[in-house]
Please model this.
Amino acid sequence: MRPISRRLLQSPQGSFLSLCLVFLLAPMLARYGLGWSGGFGYLSDLAIGSLLVLVLHNRPVWIVLPVILIWCVFTIGNAELMTAVGRMPEVSDLKYLSDPQFVSHSTQGGGLSHPWLGLALALGTLLCLLTGWRRYATKRLSPVWYVLPTALLTLHVAGQYFKPSEADQWKQFNLAHKLLAEGFSTGQLAVETWLDDDSSEPPPDIAGLTRLDLSGPRLIEPGKARNVLIVTLEGIPGAYLAPNRAAIGSSYHEDLMPRLGQWATRGMNTPDYVLHGHQTIRGLYTMLCGDYDKLDSGTPKGVEMLNNHLRNQQCLPAQLRDQGFSTHFLQGAGLRFMAKDKIMPHIGFDKTLGRDWFKNKPYLEFPWGMDDKAYFEGALGYVKQLRKQKKPWMLTLLTVGTHQPYSAPDDYLARYPSAKQAAIGYLDDAIGNFLDGLEKQGVLKDTLVIVTSDESHGIDDVRLASAWGFNLVLAPEQTQLPALKRGVYGHLDLTASVLDYFGFSVPSNLSGRSLFRDYSTGREVISYTNGLLREHDGKGTLIECDFQQVCRRYASAGFIADQARFLGRFRGKQARLVSQRAELLDQSLSSGQIGQHYQFANRERIRLQETLGNDWTDNLIGAQYLELPKGTHTQVKLKIRAVRLDKQGATLQLKTKEFDRDVAALAPQLPALKAGKTLELSFGFDNLATRKAFSFHLLGQGRGAIEITDFSVVTEPLLQADLLDLEKVEESALAE
Model:
């Protein structure tokens, strides 16, 4: 008698069980192991997995195997992208799912972040092969079986409609389910748009979102402070401060920043403080220039402003410089990433300094730059230097220690359950010591100090945590300011607030309210984080629109709240109006024009490393997160001069990425740069579809230094004839 295991492998039951392993058990175990547990998520896994099992059961291997391989790439790619950048793949990422580099941990250059998931899927695939070589002529499953996945999908849709979840997308959707839902919603929206053509209607009104409102009565007369210090903490959400949690009745109770929370009780703290987007450069732009950054993944406005020599003069550093202040920007990381080396001087900083300025020894080796303790010790010395000068000063600080990958000293790692929490605790002690040091130096007596964050790295299961920021004001006239500033405020308000504090005139094309005034009415605010577009009407209603272009209404007095009453959902024309308002805000600098010319070279001498480094921390050029519109051609010109290179010369590498994943075949391989020589080249590529979050990464290896004298990126519309020819070529290639 054959062994039972062998009989099982050669039976239809064995094939069925192996399919269940790949399509049901593996994704559900992955969801549990990755910490993505949620009722809707498991329901989505069961619905899609059971449907695929039923469709593929008893099919020939040449049908089953390709589906399994695609499923494996989807599953692994989703886990890898979530680990790397904290989001699920989009439809535009599908072309990368077949790229082997997509399933590698690109930010570290290593293998899979979750090898156990790959092994589980490989085992399931092997079992499917072993059990699927022979096609059995058994009776097909009854159509009645398809009631199961249909019922599960219906239950998921009904649950989302009647009891929508606040959880992140990956806790609610299997990737295949998300892509199917997104495709269905796009088609449905196209039909609705066709049936309800509103092209002849005027654009929606955005005056309430862009209004400069200084109508409220002052809390204080023009302030007594002489200087301005803005401290920006990397990625810290407002939930970490105990006074914020208490003010909104938050159910989140983990007290990771007790020292900063104690300082918050000594100043004016704003609990309902909105972050309008993700990414440091976007947060800094909104804070310092009084304008919404892109409410999507388009080119950051800070980069666009490099082509605008009028609007940059309204930014806070330029305004204070005109008032006689010396203006300074100091961050713990290098300046070239995301072009801060060019953007910060452009908006008015007299001095823009990064990692290379610090002479004090760091306590930790951190790939992004200075650890927070060493950073704030250096910053305290910088403040001491500024206090010796006669001119008033503005200093903006930006930390980096709470950016991925998180690191902290061993004693902190031993005290906290995760490296992320340890890094936050380390930052809390560092900022606490810094503020104590400012007080001892007497800085708080003559300086307006504002402590905030550039963005929020979010907190699992905390409502709106990705949009929840904080703003702590320490002013000489503290007794005249409330401990808790009521009302909805955000980064949009910071520039107007500082100018209003000093009694300076505020440029009329800025937006926002002043934190140093009281308002009796609400105001409109918009935000885009975690793939959700949220808009508050200032009258008690918050609207939240998701990736399916479905919007939900909530009764919420303010923007940030622990809970909100669900009022119903809508789509169609009303949903399009929300998106259209966001699109109009996105065009505040470009006026909708798609032709752009960016120059990222600054002619700075750059000392090379002896080995090729990390794509992110060692990038030599600041051309990141650009949007290259559909129907355009992008031309890149590069010129690099060798400076004191040894006779071995330098090895240079230029990579292109979209949504932080490598894009092959767009940039040429760079030849070796010889000592005393100059490398000069030009290349281009067409954009038949819009490329979003598109980045250039230039890496160098050698002994000596180089000077980048030209790195220009020019994007211009294709001629209609060229566009038609390219579309024909693409259609022909697809047909082949």
About this structure: The two ends are 51 Å apart (CA to CA).
